[in-house]
Fold this protein.
Amino acid sequence: MAGPDAVFLGTGTTTGGAVVTAVLALEETVDPAAMADLVRDRLVATHPRFATRAVPGHWPLHRPAWEPVAVDLDRHVLDGGPVSGEDGLAAALGDLATRPLDMNRPPWQLHLLALEQPGGTSSVLVARVHHSLADGQALAAALLSLVDERPDTVPPMARSEPRRASAARLAVDVVRTGVALLLTARDPAPRHARVRHPPAWTAPLDLGLVRRVAAELGVTVNDVFLGVIAGALTDAREGSGGYATLRVLVPVDLRAGRPVPSALGNRVGFALLRLPTGVADPVARVRAVGRVTGQLRGGSAPSTYLMLRVLGWVPRVVQRWAARFIGARAIAIVTNVRAPATPVHVAGARVVRVAFWVPLVGAVPAGVSILSYAGEVTVGVATDPERGPRPDRLTAAVEAGLTDLAQRALGVPDDEVVLEAVSFDSDVAATLVAEVQQEYVRRYGGHDETPVDPTEFAPPGGTFLIAQYGAVTIGCAGMRRHDVNTVEVKRMFVRAEHRRRGHARRLLRALEDLAREQGYQRVVLETGLAQPEAIALYASAGYLPVEGFGHYRDAPLSRSFAKDL
């Protein structure tokens, strides 16, 4: 067994301290027997490590080893039964986090839950894998063997490739890193982290929005999230004294873009980052994070990986002391993993969302896991309530912080926004409509398949408006003839960074005014339960529920509204 694998085996517990949890929400239900066959043929057959168990060494300096064993899928692919809604799913995940893995068998389990929601029942696949088997990126690569239409390689989680250091340079880095850890003060909060509250996850976050913010501020996507997380940790601790210092451990994939081997394993080092505190302005905070990370390219990750290799040879009690020593110097471990950029399927069902939770190892009180998939990002959080905020409070602070940052970084003066009619098949309209469709993918798992003819949005029967400030496009809204007295509003959309500023209401009023001028007496529109802010807008603008119409009239999530002009 490699040294880093032995360290994760020795320093964590089987009830959460060293178990990576990944969740794949599927669009429909999947048969447990079919899932078991898929796991046998694709996961176990292609990654032999999933058919081994860890056996201890026979003397203190003898490392544990991986021993091949037969895999009884009835003990590894489990039917988790039904759960009711997001709250029920969170409770189930919290319960699973307390269940020990059987270390006499290969240390992993897959649970197939039936998620019951107003729109119907769908499957949720929960993978629990001991950290000694694989790091986060290797686990992502392993789970991708279960999906269809997966890419040939999985991108590394780090934003820059580590330099190939000479032995002498690496030795100097090891000494420097060790001295820095010794001189770094411990966090004064209680020492021993343990998971009590159910883990939490954010609503889907728009990766395109994050990229626009990063480009505007001249930083990376990782910098944006680290800045938002720094603000969220501070906000979520208000009333508890806050943080005098805010240090986080960031895993860095040291494979330098090379494919993850079938043997999996842990090939990560750690960078200890000191994030800015006392910076109220989110834009200034993200730029400060960018300066910190820019100075640490390469950094301490190779040297900490070498430390893990060395620690693999020492007794378990020393490994645990070292983990607590390092973990006590950080508020959180923050990891970033990238999944496929386009939707994939498991056993024929579309994967609509992916999230994971990094384990709490040593004395680290919080784990923050960032995962991007199919144009959206989900941030998962697990914390120890004695040393960090509740997970749901932290995820709420992340969502609010990203919205605030985007509006400050990309917002425009409201009184200088102009509305302009354009052709539905123009380049600017096509770009916005593509973003609308991506929004539907994030919220509903697929595109709006309502038949649309571009000529319907041209005068005299219709129009298509865009809102702009100079060269900045804010949003769009169109209307088309529904019947002789009625128009239908379609493709109402405002980019995320410009929301909550009244732009959607202004577009809606402009369409209503145009409809009146053209002699129409009524406006109808269709939206869905996954867009509660849209429903709230229409209700406040005087729209009333009506019988369903159009392509999605019988869809359980569809809701139709109308307003007399």
Observations:
- The two ends are 73 Å apart (CA to CA).
- The CA atoms of residues 216 and 557 lie 36 Å apart.
